[in-house]
Amino acid sequence: MQEIEFIPTIDVLQSITENCPECYSHQKENLLVDARLYVGLVLSEFKLRRSDNLVPPQSFASNFLLIMSRIGYWQTTSSVDWCENNYEYSHYIAEFWNTFSSLAMIIFGEAGARMNLCEGFRFKLAFRLISVVGVGSLLFHATLTSEMQALDEVPMVWSALTLVHPLIESIYGPQGYWLPIAQVIHAILCTLAVTIAKGDMQFIFFHMSFGSLELLSLYLMHRIYSLKKSSHPAVKYLFERGVIIYSLAIAIWLTDLYMCDYVNGGEKSILPFNPQLHSIWHLLASFGLYLLVVLTLYNFLWESGVKCNVVYRFGGLVPVVVKNSLSFKDVKKLERSKPRKNSFISIYSREF
């Protein structure tokens, strides 16, 4: 069967360029036309050539729909486009694997809020903000729009802020009203910066805001680890595993962002396929963050005088903070659920 060639007339290209410059979007270095906005114009002006004859209208319509499916439903306006090929599996989902791997954040956030001893409002909020980040991430990767990107990134800043407060107070004691007021002001400024800025500046503002909170939180967690790793095995386990997993996730995130050409299965790639590294980042970051939030919760409760313990559920994989008022039967059940020795997650929690 002879290949059909699509020939846009000069009038069409000039008209779209002059009247609708936003109809163009760069996706993977290919210039695509959002023909949805000019479907009438394109249908009337586009010509198909097969040898010297025009293709019948029926063939034109079917091939035009094929082009439309590859363009995708959403117009890309985000400041970053990840390594996954866009609209590969669905006309309505820009990044299929990145979208559905975001469910990991929703699951870990909601499970953390329900399973852990979250006395008070702040830690339920901390866990559920992880779920909110997951919802935003799902919408962002499905659409690659700037609005959904903000919905992904702004809750990440809020989530980090909810951890800074209990970390500071568990180390330095109660701080009064100045700390929450300062955090609210910081949250407002970061939210405005991330939502108002566009392009590269938006990307820079977000990572400066979130990155600084990440570093501060890790510094405070390391202080807790240094003080309690000997007397509290749970602190040692949660910090070491949490940092290792989260650091690995960041390394994978950076590789996907800055070395896409070498890991996407293309001509320059050292891999024969695209391993969807950003999806792996979602999974590892969700679990690593969960471990670090549990560490913060456990330390805060202990410093507040609540006698608690970390137990390990789902085959010893998922640590959970519970009250230390267990029956003999419960203790035996929890003993059987602790991590196995000589494994990556091997450590035994003490009953305090």
Provide structural commentary.
Strand 4 and strand 5 form a beta hairpin. Helix 6 packs antiparallel against helix 7 (146-172) and helix 9 runs antiparallel to helix 10. The chain has two domains: 5-71; 96-336, Rhopdopsin 7-helix transmembrane proteins. It is built from 13 helices and seven strands. The chain starts with a strand and ends in a 16-residue tail after the last helix. By secondary structure, the chain is mainly alpha-helical. The chain has helices spanning 10-19, 39-45, 57-71, 96-101, 103-115, 122-143, 146-172, 178-196, 199-228, 233-258, 260-263, 277-303, 328-336; strands at residues 5-7, 24-27, 30-33, 47-50, 53-54, 308-313, 318-323. The model is unreliable at 1-14, 21-55 and 340-352 (pLDDT under 50). It has a three-stranded antiparallel β-sheet, with no helix packed on it. A two-stranded antiparallel sheet has the order 2-3. The chain has a two-stranded antiparallel sheet with strand order 6-7.
